[in-house]
Design a protein that fits this description.
The complex is a heterodimer of chains A (289) and B (382).
Chain A: H1 6-40, E1 42-45, E2 49-52, H2 57-98, H3 102-110, H4 117-127, H5 133-140, H6 154-178, H7 182-190, H8 195-224, H9 227-232, H10 240-251, H11 254-279, H12 281-288
Antiparallel strand pairs in A: 1-2
Chain B: E1 15-24, E2 27-37, E3 42-46, H1 53-61, E4 68-73, E5 76-77, E6 88-91, H2 103-113, H3 118-131, H4 147-159, E7 165-169, H5 177-194, E8 197-202, H6 205-211, E9 214-219, E10 222-227, H7 229-234, H8 239-244, E11 249-257, E12 262-267, E13 272-276, E14 289-293, E15 299-302, E16 312-323, E17 327-334, E18 339-345, E19 360-365, E20 371-374
Parallel strand pairs in B: 3-8, 3-9, 6-7, 7-8
Antiparallel strand pairs in B: 1-2, 1-4, 4-5, 9-10, 11-12, 11-14, 12-13, 14-20, 15-19, 16-17, 16-19, 17-18
The chains are: A mainly alpha (289), B alpha+beta (382).
Chain lengths: 289, 382
């Protein structure tokens, strides 16, 4: 057996720890992404096969043809993320600061995950159905006209996304709020801050990392989602995920699908960087201490 | 609110608690506490953990609502006011510095809430940072500072507001001994400099004695005795105070007569001790009592030497003699079965000279140094 000096073994140890993860990323992330990059620059069709010829026009064609779906994806995801934040913040705040049954409430938040994503979304078809109680109720209170419907509308798709991704917002928010030392809020009120000012000047800044993490965990998968648009909307609500899915699996137009995927990835990356800049990376770091 | 509650006059005590009770469910944390704290005093609330001292402080600060009773600040009834409407500031036990703000903004927090002008904020923050020796640390975050520095930031953050009173909740508890000693002196200096009333909660009797002008010894939700360190040490009113502040040798017995200047006390094993009558609290009438004497007041004499005239004397045998450098500490087993501690200054040099373990000795002290307290931990009136 190979005998290594203690120093060599010590210096190799970090790589040993990193190894499995690194290998996983290379095999299941780096190689596929390079191969898709290669595919995205090909032309041809499914019968005669595709050939690689630096076809950058695939990108411009894809963008100009599916600009509407891109815009819709980012719009829906942004609205759903904001809705998730508005619903989750009071919820997470209550669980972190006021509740005596934290574990039960946290369990309730993740409980939907015990049901399959697809099944949950299809269940919303029933909830939002034209003869369902939600539609009846909204018609009765006058929020919906008598022939108005929810299913197959923008509202339904956004509601479905909001519902499905709510836990990804609520849990990081809870974690960051739970970490806040109550005595800091006492200290703020001791220093002449009203409850509202103490919230604005102490609680909220210290919850920023949670808001940031929750927004990313909600927004990024929501932009690429196609399940909600497919089951709760129509082709007029289709998002970019629906296009990519059908190009890959139905039409077999691989280069366009790959190009759309790359564009989506870069736009999300740019959006996240802008968001981090807006919240202030310094604030995020400091609050995380 | 009781109708017979009267606010103190405006030039009266800075802080008055009037028959304040605080219950947490079944537990009584503070039990009918009445206290006046004079303007400009350095006032310590001293007691073991769970005695209600922190709850009392939190009621002054407004963080707890009294179940019964009234809190006055500067002559004004503030019982129902939230903390942010009270003109007092707190130095919290764990400092509670805002982790996302630097020193400058931590200290300016209170002034900014009160809409003090930008230039004034700058000036006052700079002043208080100088006083607390933190100049140059303005841009540091709390996490980048040592415990002692964080403590000073907490102090600066409270002082900069020039409150009527500063409340300190075990402010030095988290620091090591050397730093604590240093900051005790610094706190005292700052208090003299600003002239603000300080209310200081601590379980450390030495800390209270070093810093405070007045000390209230608390036990089980009430004040056992309040006074200067000297008063509490030399004339404790209860057994609890006698044993909480320093060591005290105590012996059971009965008061035989209390006529004249000197009362006669007969110990349980028949020895007679003299106690100045003025030391006897009339409230003790008939209740069981104990006589006490501080270790440093005792003189040890060989058993065959005649006792000095007029002294209180007990017989005993030395069990342990320990050389402490500045002093020698003896543990003496008395004829009545008590274990007395005696401390003699090392004036002669050479350690435990002629008095070693096993020697029969006389424990003698001046009757004026006798302490007479009610037996048991509680106050005679409670």
């Amino acid at each position: 057996m190979l005998r290594l000096s203690l120093r060599t073994r010590r210096s190799l140890f970090p790589y040993l720890l990193l190894g499995p993860g690194l290998l996983w990323l290379i095999v299941f992330y780096l190689i596929p992404i390079l191969s898709q990059g290669y595919v995205s620059l090909q032309t041809g069709n499914i019968e005669q096969g595709y050939t690689f010829n630096w076809a950058f026009h695939v990108y411009s064609d894809a963008l100009s043809e599916y600009g509407a779906q891109f815009a819709r994806s980012f719009g829906y995801a942004a609205v759903a993320t904001v809705l998730c934040l508005i619903i989750s913040f009071p919820l997470a705040y209550y669980i972190a600061f006021k509740s005596r049954h934290k574990n039960i409430l946290l369990l309730l938040i993740v409980l939907p995950f015990f049901t399959n994503y697809l099944v949950r979304t299809i269940a919303w078809q029933t909830i939002l159905a034209d003869d369902g109680w939600v539609v009846h109720f909204l018609q009765n209170v006058g929020l919906l006209s008598h022939d108005g419907r929810l299913l197959a509308t923008r509202t339904a798709v956004i509601a479905g996304i909001t519902y499905n991704f709510l836990p990804f917002m609520a849990l990081p928010l809870y974690v960051s709020l739970e970490k806040i030392d109550r005595r800091l809020i006492e200290a703020a009120t001791d220093l002449y801050a009203s409850r509202a000012t103490a919230f604005r000047k102490v609680t909220l800044p210290l919850a920023l990392p949670g808001i940031f993490a929750g927004s990313l965990l909600t927004f990024i998968p929501a932009v690429g989602d196609f399940i909600n648009a497919q089951f709760l909307g129509t082709s007029r609500q289709y998002m970019i995920g629906n296009v990519i899915q059908s190009k890959f699996l139905v039409i077999a137009d691989y280069p366009t699908a790959a190009a759309l995927s790359f564009v989506l990835m870069f736009v999300i990356l740019a959006a996240v960087l802008l968001y981090a800049r807006a919240l202030g990376t310094r604030n995020l770091q400091d609050a995380a201490i | 609110m009781d109708s017979d509650v009267t606010a103190p006059p405006a030039d009266g005590p800075d802080i008055r608690l009037d028959r304040v009770v605080k219950r947490f469910g079944e537990t009584v944390a503070v039990d009918g506490l009445t206290v006046d704290i004079e303007r400009g005093a350095f006032y310590a609330l001293l007691g073991p953990s769970g005695c209600g001292k922190t709850t009392t402080l939190r009621m002054i600060g407004g963080f707890e609502d009294p179940t019964e009773g009234t809190v006055f600040l500067g002559g004004r009834n503030v019982t129902d006011l939230p903390p942010y409407k009270r003109d007092v500031n707190t130095v919290f036990q764990s400092y509670a510095l805002f982790p996302h703000l630097d020193v400058q903004h931590n200290v300016a927090f209170g002034l900014e809430r009160r809409k003090v002008g930008k230039n004034d904020v700058k000036k006052r923050v700079a002043e208080v940072l100088e006083m607390t020796q933190l100049t140059g640390y303005e841009k540091r975050k709390p996490a980048q500072m040592s415990g002692g520095q964080q403590q000073r930031v907490a102090l600066a953050r409270a002082l900069v507001n020039r409150p009527k009173a500063l409340l300190l909740d075990e402010p030095l508890g988290a620091l090591d001994l050397r730093l604590r000693k240093q900051l005790q002196i610094e706190l005292k200096r700052i208090q003299k400099e600003v002239g603000i009333t300080f209310v200081h909660v601590t379980h450390d009797q030495e800390e209270a004695m070093t810093m405070a002008d007045r000390i209230a010894v608390m036990n089980e939700g009430h004040i056992e005795q309040a006074g200067s360190a000297t008063e509490l040490y030399e004339t404790p009113a209860t057994e609890f105070v006698a044993s909480f502040l320093g060591d005290c040798n105590l012996i059971d017995g009965d008061l035989r007569s209390r006529d004249g200047v000197v009362a006669d006390f007969r110990t349980h094993d028949g020895a007679h001790l003299r106690v100045p009558s003025e030391r006897i609290d009339p409230a003790l009438n008939g209740s069981p009592v104990r006589v006490g004497v501080r270790p440093e007041k005792l003189t040890l004499l060989p058993a065959d030497v005649p006792a000095p005239d007029g002294a209180n004397v007990l017989r005993g045998r030395i069990e342990i003699a320990s050389f402490l450098g500045t002093a020698i500490q003896y543990v003496v087993h008395t004829a009545g079965g008590e274990e007395f501690t005696a401390i003699e200054q090392n004036r002669l040099g050479g350690g435990v000279h002629s008095l070693g373990p096993g020697r029969d000795v006389l424990l003698a002290w001046d009757p004026a140094h006798s302490i007479l307290v009610a037996k048991g931990g509680t106050h005679a009136g409670a």
